[in-house]
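pasting for the record
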Amino acid sequence: MEPTSPAHSGTENGGGELRSARVLIVDDHAHNVELLGAYLEELECEVMTAADGAEAMAKIEATPPDLILLDVMMPRVSGYQVCARVKADPATRDIPVIMVTALNEVGDVERAVESGADDFLTKPVNRLELVTRVRSLLKVRAMQRELARTLGELKKLRDGEG
């Protein structure tokens, strides 16, 4: 096992939550999936993969990830369609989606945002940019979950006292 540097040991800034996080990488090119997975190794999160949008939807339904890295141009179901479905479903709408694509026109970014994407990266992906954005969105996701748990506990206490 490789030693980890203190900056990536998971002991500060919510690293524990990142280690238990699940990231779904969706891309129809195996090389891209492998590269993105390698870039995410320093986060020590669980990486799941899907080769197209239809497979991604099945995996999201079976085991909802904490974040989705989603290619736009795929056979059968596009990344835009997957993102729109994820964001339309109350059970999955809070999962952050980062669109990762070779498309770089303003219209492509607009369409990604309209489909509900939380962020957008252009290929070739810069490792530092990817890791930074994934880490940030996973921390936000962990804070959202903690807030929901706390609000649930407060509601139970309030309802119990009423």
